[in-house]
Amino acid sequence: MNKQLDEQYYQKLLELQQLDFGLVELTLYLDTHPNDLQALQQFNQLAQQRQQCAHQFEMQYGPLLQFGLSYSKFPWQWVETPWPWQV
Amino acid sequence: MWIYEKKLQYPVRVSKCDPRIARYLVEQYGGADGELSAALRYMNQRYSIPDKVVGLLTDIGTEEFAHLEMIATMIYKLTKDATPKQLEDAGLGPNYVNHDNGMFYNNASGVPWTAAYIATKGDPIADLYEDIAAEEKARTTYQWIIDMTDDVDLQDGLKFLREREIVHALRFKEAVEILKADRDTKKVY
């Protein structure tokens, strides 16, 4: 592994996983309750928080997504470890 | 299309090298009620189900792929430091001879995954009942695996997966009600 995984890495990753968990739950809930305005507002609010959190994570630890949905520094960062199962 | 995200849905930790429990966990990787079966079952049913529940099948199916990666991570971490002797003692001798440390889609008894595990009837209610049953069976399997280990770190990840099965079953039950309500409304053309 060519990257040092510090305490902060795990903390930032957990923060992102927590936001994403809320979003997964709200997504599935809204799939069967599309007229729940309060849930929808919560979804949009969390989605915005998630975007900021993911952006910070990516600036520090590299891209989370490929095919143009994340930016990369030089050299191409996507191929760098760690992969999720190595964390 | 699908986009891969370079992170797990939930942290996966194990507290020891334990090929014995890894051997049982494979059930949720390539078994009948495992995560691969779940993901493929829901994705495949989308093309004949009414529009109202396509979103739900897509999203739960996608989440199942995230669970598949969590199971693979558990197995990887439980076995990566095991010697061939340890694998053999855990009953994974035949698996080692065939696959070394490579992952393979089979169940806990070594039977390769088959498409016969996933059902599509084309009838929306029949398909959704199949999905509810599949979630309940997966929940049960997770409980049996949790009961068979004293590794609290591993149990934590397994409990997360067990709870997700409950939520998925609930959402599928709601989907059934949505279709029933739609069926019972008077339509004027």
From TrEMBL, chain A:
Record's protein name: Spore coat protein CotJB
Limits of the Protein CotJB domain: 11-86
Cross-referenced Pfam families: CotJB (PF12652)
Keywords: Capsid protein, Virion
Taxonomic path: Bacteria, Bacillati, Bacillota, Bacilli, Bacillales
Automatic annotation (TrEMBL), chain B:
Record flagged with keyword Coiled coil: no
Top-level division of the source organism's lineage: Bacteria
UniProt entry keywords in alphabetical sequence: Capsid protein, Virion
InterPro entries given in the database record: Ferritin-like, Ferritin-like_SF, Mn_catalase, Mn_catalase_dom
Database matches in SUPFAM superfamilies: Ferritin-like (SSF47240)
Pfam annotation, one family: Mn_catalase
CDD domains cross-referenced by the UniProt entry: Mn_catalase (cd01051)
Family: Belongs to the manganese catalase family.
Protein name: Spore coat protein CotJC
